[in-house]
Specification:
The chain is of the alpha/beta class. It is 50% helix and 16% strand. A hairpin with a 2-residue loop joins β5 and β6. It is globular.
Length: 134
């Protein structure tokens, strides 16, 4: 499957494991093809720099490089605007659209409420794993 992960899935996979980590393991094993863009990685770095995570800039750089090594990297143009309740999430929709992704995987209600975007299913990590294993 071709997938785009929201920032919260990356962060959860790094710190808490669970279903988000299982998805990253599927990417590592070649079962899923991960797509991302500079804007998603930049926001991921900003979130990881929050004091509650208490990690060094070097560790953040390491985590971002880890994603870059696993993902297929594309450029978004900002063509998708004001689709999500939170317009910051439009980059995720555009990344998925440009790569013809099968799924956007997120824990963000602003994306989940859409259910689907131009044929791309928007699901939680748990929902995705239930579909992927079947």
């Amino acid at each position: 499957m071709k997938i785009v992960l929201d920032i919260n899935i990356f962060v959860s996979s790094f710190f808490w494991g669970g279903n988000p980590r299982k998805i990253m393991e599927r990417v590592i094993d070649g079962k899923d093809k991960l797509f991302t863009c500079r804007e998603i990685l930049q926001e991921t770095a900003v979130v990881l720099a929050r004091p509650k995570f208490n990690v060094s800039n070097e560790y953040i750089t390491h985590l971002i490089h880890s994603i870059e090594e696993l993902a297929n990297y594309i450029s978004v143009t900002g063509a998708i605007q004001n689709v999500c309740r939170d317009s910051d999430d439009d980059k995720i929709l555009e990344c998925a659209l440009l790569t013809n992704a099968d799924y956007i995987i997120t824990g963000d209600d602003d994306l989940l409420i859409l259910g689907e975007f131009r044929g791309i299913k928007i699901v939680t990590a748990k929902e995705y794993l239930e579909k992927a294993i079947v």
